[in-house]
Amino acid sequence: MQNVTKxxxxxxxxxxxxILAYLSAAxxxxxxxxxxxxxxxxxxxxHLSVLENAGLVSSERRGQFIHYSxxxxxxxxxxxxxxxxxxxxxxxxxxxxxxxxxGKRATQQD
Length: 110
Description:
Layout: H1 2-11, H2 14-23, E1 28-29, H3 30-34, H4 41-53, E2 57-62, E3 65-70, H5 72-86, H6 90-102
Antiparallel strand pairs: 1-3, 2-3
Helix pairs in contact: 1-4
């Protein structure tokens, strides 16, 4: 559940959501990301750090630049897992799946 908390904390910022939107189309350097915002470089660095710590963004050094990329699977899997936990429609399906995996019969009371 800690990962879910980190992801939602990261998504709580409009700037970070916009960074993720930019990275959904292409890998960008910090400088390329900074050109799209009117924030200081230290502030941008903090936002990128929060996103990376949440596992939503990865960084890779290429020459003298660090390129940031969206870790799409982590975002999708984290949000999907959260929705399955709280969505009433998904609960019976999850119980049925768990019951089949353990060889037990699912009941309405579970």
